Structures are given as structure tokens and as C-alpha cells.
Amino acid sequence: MSSFRNHRIIIASLFLPTTAVLGESNPPTPDIPAKSPPAQSNPTARIPNGTPIPPFRHQPSKSSGANAPLKSIVEDLKSRATTPLSTPQSEPVNPFAKFLSFASPQPNGTPSSASGSPSHPPGLPSLDRSFTFSSRPRKFQTTHQDVQHTARLQRKQSRSSSRRPGDVYPANAIEGNHAWHTAPNSHCNGGLKNAVDSIKDHLTHTLWVGTLGNSTDNFGPDLRTSINLRMRQMCSSVPVWIPDAEFESCYDEFCHQVLWPCLHYAVPDAPKTKLFYESASFKQYMAVNKRFADVIIDNYREGDIIWVNDYHLMLLPALLRANPKLINAPVGFFLHVAFPSSEIFRCLSVRDSLLRGVLAADLVGFQTAGYARHFRQTVSRILALEALPKGIQVEGIPGSTSGVNGAPSKLELKGRFVDVGVFPMGIDVGALREKKREPDVSYWVQLLRQRYAGMKMIVGRDKLDEIQGVRHKIEAFERFLKKHPEYQGQVVLIQVALQTTESNELAGGVADVVARVNAAYSTLTYQPVVFLHTQEVTFSQYLALLTVADAFLVTSLREGMALRTHEFVECQEGRHRPLILSEFTGSYSYSGFRSCIAINPYDTRGTANAIYQALTMSDEDAVSRWEDLHNHVVTQTAQAFVTSFLTRCLRANTEHTAQTDLSMVPVVDMARVLPRYKHSSRRLLLFDFEGAVWIRDMSRAGLLAPFEPQKEVLELFKRLADDARNEVWLLSGLPVKGVLDKIASAVPSVGIVAENGCFIKTRETKKTPAKWIDMVPNLNFTWKSPCIEILNYFTERTPGSFLEEREASIVWRFWTGPIDDCSDRQWARRQAAEAQNHIFDSLGERYGLRIIPGSSSFLVLPNNISRSTAVGAILHPGGPAYSPRSGMALASVNGRGDVSDDASFVFAVGGDEKLLRRLNELDNAETASTSRKGTDAKWKLDPKDVVSVLAQFANVN
């Protein structure tokens, strides 16, 4: 984590965590600091321990007293909307006007009510009812705008109203008086902000880039300059100024009517929807991404790490990479929502542009392994690129040819490897624990227990759109009440509805089913479904709900990481009640969350049974399940998410940029190397066999032909090994039997590494004979049978392919024809990519396997075994026989035990970049690459010239 102290992190997200609000703040300050609860106007309003009642909106009924439970729950619901009849009409049309109401002067000189409701109790200060808290002192900010579902502000409505400044802002604020203050942005990605804030003591330099989230067409140049300056100085933020109409088309049309449904498996009926074929709003999407790129480029400085977030900015990495200033800058992209299968994503008419935009990053991160797998498969099938388990191999390809109106894109991607990783998001557990201990939460916990005494409470928090499955939840609850009439009047479902647009609420179809359930089962003292909009619930009240809940119900039809479930688990530390979780959430894919009660939200009967199971579960079962859930929550934290993503991004960029362009690497200068070799008393010579010393015939006939080593090559090795000052090692991926054992028999004084480090043959000396050492003696090889079965399936589908089974590894030759990029070869590469993904996903993690890809084949072998680790064992004091991995303890490997320990000259030739990079750390090493690609080696060497170079070494007296 300390490595980030030397880097500034540029965080690009559509909305800034802090926005600018016109008007003076009260008190006038750039931030809204958290306040201690002031004394109440009513001195008798105290909870039993004497603590004054916190100043929240919903106070105990005066008729019943502060300490007595309500006689009727209906009294507690009089001021609330009992059914979600879309967005309340009493709210201002502009969704951002609530921030203005906090600071706009009223005729009596006091701030207006935060609620804007005349029923607000007099004498009690208003609070912002969003779940956003000031960062000084920092309080926990809930993820109510779930990172998977960034709030969809009602941009269209606010645009129409913003064209009449007098309806929203005081006229003088626009024309001359530029008084303004900052406020928490209710539209920002709350989960991301929490995660960054959780390590701000270590992440000392950050710069947020995003929009303010409100209408800005009426902001004049002077006002924008003022906002730019103060936001940069006080909030470490740089606003991106976007015309209202452009933003509306990008955000409301393309992001939420095209991208969002596609990413969440909700593609509209294609014949009725032209957006997937005629996406005119994609022009505005490109323009918004271009504005973000311009701002980042202007503010970028050497050493910055650029972190691009979410589906709103999928083109941004390529736009940044196209600028020469940022061509080698660390760029990471993280998708906070789900990623669908290729069959869904291929429906997008602009699919190529989006994928290539993302692939310009060094690292592409996802919430779950399933989403990462979908992305790799989509790239493989749509762009025909090589998709490997750890990322995408991008060969130098031009930009998209399916841009707007078929015009080719100007973006180009150079050949590079793009890492694809899984980074599960979490919550700031420590901050949440601090918030739980506040008196406000304790008060509301006690009040809720009084008002719902003797009843079971099921709590949920979702948006009201189709994807969140709220309608499915209510219907399942209705079936539960019908099937178990003994629970009628005894169980209440409290549903907190996140802010969304009226059209989305209507599409969700929640209002009618809630009305039906309440009409069927309500009594004078009981209402089965209580609906609360987010602005009606403070964060303390929400934590209290999670604390007293008897179950938390999530019925999402498709969702990334459901962080509200993490909050529920942490709040249940004292009660250990169960979590009912949809199988279609990202959280469920992790083993720790398999202890929930899993449901298929489309199965109404099954969900109803899950509710009954949760309410009747024994304490022992509930505690056991909660412990598994809690262990996962405290491990998968917000801190771990940020540090792991940024560390991997920095490492990926280092690997990408470290390799020098091949044209800049000189050919081996024997005039400089030979004198060093000649005057060295101890020499270590490491040579790759295939691809360097031996140029293999890659045709099908050549691959299947029996191996016969070349006599001139064997003679050359014998001459080198006969020199007492030399220690010669041959590095190979070939098997021992039938291939390398022939070389071992012909030149026993040469050490051999077989199957990429799985076996090592020691050098024969006068004192000790040569022996083969098994470097993987304790590994489980039961993986080979299912792996062969998988590869046999792909062999049947790929003409000309065949399988090579070795003792500790497997090779699949998927192409043996000409190197021309014909359709058959493209098909073979796609099949190879799918086979690799299938093996990695089904066997890789379980058995600890890794895959080494090649241009016409790939190798499957145990993890943590490579030529580099084999050479490490050779360099180990005493040689590989003393390596702990071998499990053996021979007296000596090379007969002297001192050549590799203190070699004054090391010469390595091969194409393994990891090995060459490792040997470069030795002061006395000369490394030559035969890979014909960008390399870290000191020299380059054409494979056909390797034998002649070795002959020059052998001729030195």
C-alpha cells in the first residue's frame, strides 16, 4: 500500500462525490460538517437512558409518549405513502433542488426544511435524508446508490426546468452573485467513494474527475472558473463541463436505454427497438467520453495512475491511450455492474467500439469471475482476439470499423497483453461499526422494537425498476402470507425504495401488486407492506432497520456486488438472522455467501418457502450461516478492493512498458561477449532447446514424427560441457520419455530441464551419475483425465488439431497448417481460447493449474512451475537437489557445487521473458531473446543464428 504514496490516483467516474450548489451554505463553508445532535426543544422527549431524542423526522407519537409502544401501526404510517405511486408529486421537478433548499434564505431568515414539507415538526432541524455524509469528520456513507446501479437522475425533467433559471436558482446567482457551496453528490458512486475514503490515510494523492450531476448550461465563465478553482483546492476534484442536451442524450438514452439493459440481460424486443441498430445517442456518448479524456490529459502528470470507472466511460481508456502523452500511462478500467454473455452483448451495434475502448487499459476489472469470463469470451468471439485465462492478447489492431454511421474509428491499439482480473467490492467494516455505535442508531433500534413488538420484520432496499425484482419480492411475500395464514398480522415487509425515474418505477410494476397485498391483508393495526423512499429514511434509521430485521430479502434478477447484503450481515452481529439472496447477484458467486438462503427470484413459490425457512430457522443454524457470511464480509473489504486493483494495475503497466521495442534491442555483439566468456573462471550457460537450438517442423507430419536429435548440435553441447569451467543447461518444454532422454543419453554432462520445470536431470560427473528429479512429486494429477476429456471435445470441433499427453502436463496443438490468417486458423484460435477458458474455469482454481499459450498450441501444467523456477533451483546453493520443491537431498548436483553458486559469467538464450528478466538482475549475466517481440533482454538473436553463436563459444580455447 505504501507504493501508492509516490503516485497520484486520477479517479474518473461520471459523477463527482461532491457537487456545487448555488447559494450560501449555512454555515458558509465548502463542506457540510457533521454536527452533534443539538438539544431538543421538548425537554421531556428522552429515551429511557436520558439521552435526548435525535433530531430525525419521525418522532414518537405524542399521544403514546416517548416510552410507550404504539397502539396502532397505522398511526406510524399516516404521514407516509403506503404504496409506491411513482415519484411523489410534491417533490420538486429538479431532483437537485433539494440541495438548494438547504441553503436558500427564507423570508424569516432561516433555512428551508430539508423535506420541503409543511408538516416538518417545528423546532427540529432538518437533515439531508440521503445517505451521504460529510467526510470531515468522515462518517460511513451507505451504498444506497448501489455500485451496480448508479443513480439515474431525472436528467430530462431537470433539463426542461433548468432552462428557466428563476424556477430553480435565484436570478442574481446566475447573473452576478456567484455565491455557491459544495455538498455531497447524491448521484455519485457511493460504493466507490466509500472504498477510496477507507484508505485515504494511505492514498494521500487523489484527483476525482467527473460531472457535478446538475444542470450547468446557465453557469457563466466566471462561475465555472470559481468552481474549478475551489473544487480543485478543497475537494481534489476537477469538474467536466458537458452541455445539458449532450449529457441528456448520453446518459438518459444511450447509457440507460441501451447499455444498462444489455449489461443486465434485459435487451428489449429487437424488432420493436431500433436503439441497438440505430444508436444516434452514441455520438453523444463518444462526445462525453472525449470531454473526460481532454480533462484528464490536461491534468495528467508523470507517475499518475488513471482509474476509469463503470459503463458510462467505456471509450475513455482508448481515448487516453491515443494521446502520446499517456501512451505508457497506467490505466485501469473497472466495471461496477454485471457483464453479460457474448450472445447478449453481440446485440449492440457499437459492440466493437466499446470493447476496443476498454481493451486500451492495462487492467480490466470485474466484480466476479463469471463476469470476467463473459468478457473474455465476448472479446474472443466478437473481435477474434486471443482470450487467455488471465487476460487478452491484443495484436496491433486498428480501431473499430463499426463506429457511428459505419465510419472507421481513429483509435488504434498496439500489440500488448491486457490483464483481466476479479476484484470483489466490499464495505468499510470499521467505519460501519463506528456508525452502529452512535446513540442515534441505538435510539431507533429501541423505537423499532417497541413499535413492531411481537412481529417479524423482513427488510429490503432496492430500486423499483424491473431488474431489481421488487415485484417478484412482493408477489413471493403475498404467496407466503396466503400459504401460511398464521403469519398474517405477524410479519411486515419494510421495503426501502431507492430514487429512480418515474418511468422506471412504472416499468417495475410494483405499485399495483403492493396495493393488492395491502388491500387483502391490512387491518386497523396491521399493514403487511411498508414502502419508504430513500429520502424518508436517514442512515441511522436504515442501520436500525438492518439491526432489528428478522431477515433481509434480495430478489434481484441481475446484479453485481449487492453491498447492502454486506451491511446487513455486519449489522446482525448480535442477532445472526439469515440473509435471503438471489442467485443472480454477484455476491452469491463467492463461497462465503453460499451460507445464505439462495433463491431463484423467478420462482415465486420457492421464494415464499425461503421466507418461511428464514423466519423459522433455529438459532444454531442461523449462527452457523452468519459466521460464514461475516467471515467473508470482513475479508472482502473496501480497503482490499482498492489496494488489490491499484496494485495489479501498476504491476500490469510495469510489465507492459518494461519491454523495450525490439527495434531498439541490439543483436548479440560477439566482439564484446566473447572476451568476457574467455576470461571467466566459472560460466553458467542456459539455452532454450525448441525455438532456439532446435527449429522444430511445426507441420502435422513433423510434430507427429519420432524425435531424432541433430548430431552436430549434440556434438556442440558435448564440447561446451567438456570445458571444466562450464555448466551447461538445456531448457525445454518437451517430455522426458522418447525425446529428452535421448539427449540425456547422448550428452550426460549437460543438465536438462523438462516439461517447463516439472523435471530436472542433473549433470553427470566423475563422482555422481545423472539423475532425473521430479519437481512436482506431491501434486495431485487427477486433473489430467477431465482436462483430456475437455480437449478431446474441442479436438472433434477443430480440424487438424491433436493432443499430446505428457507425464505432468498436456499440450493441445490446435493449428498445424500455414501461418496465413485464414478463416480456418481464426476458427482454431477461437476454439483454443474457449478451451483455455473452459479448462481454467473448471479445473484451474480447483487443481492449481496454469496455461502457457502459444501461436499454434497451448500447454496446461501445474501452477508455480516454470523454467524460471527451475533455473532458480539450479542457482540454489547445491543445485536443484537441495531445492525444497524436489523433496530430495542429494550430495551434489553438478559435482562441484560451486559453478552456479558463484558464476562469473552467465549467458542465457531463449524466449521466456520472465526468465530473462530474472537473470537480468545478475550483474554478470548476458541475456539474448529469440522471441522476436518486445523484450527486456540485453540482446536479440535470430533463432537460426543460435547454433553458430554457440559454436563460437565452443571454439574459444
From TrEMBL:
Residues in the signal sequence: 1-23
Composition bias (Basic residues) maps to 152-162
Give the Pfam families listed for this entry.
Answer: Glyco_transf_20 (PF00982), Trehalose_PPase (PF02358)
Low complexity: compositionally biased ranges: 107-118
- Output the Gene3D superfamilies linked to this UniProt entry: Glycogen Phosphorylase B, HAD superfamily/HAD-like, Trehalose-6-phosphate phosphatase related protein, domain 2
Which GO terms of type biological process are on file?
trehalose biosynthetic process
Q: Which GO terms describe its cellular component?
A: alpha,alpha-trehalose-phosphate synthase complex (UDP-forming); cytosol
Q: Care to name a GO molecular-function term for this sequence?
A: trehalose-phosphatase activity
CDD domains assigned to the protein according to its UniProt record, in alphabetical order? GT20_TPS
Residue numbers spanned by region Disordered? 22-73, 99-172
Keywords in alphabetical order: Signal, Transferase
Q: InterPro entries recorded for this chain? A: Glyco_trans_20 (IPR001830), HAD-like_sf (IPR036412), HAD_sf (IPR023214), Trehalose_PPase (IPR003337)
Which family does the record claim for this protein? In the N-terminal section; belongs to the glycosyltransferase 20 family.
Q: What is this protein called?
A: Glycosyltransferase family 20 protein
Query: What is the organism of origin for this protein?
Result: Paxillus rubicundulus Ve08.2h10
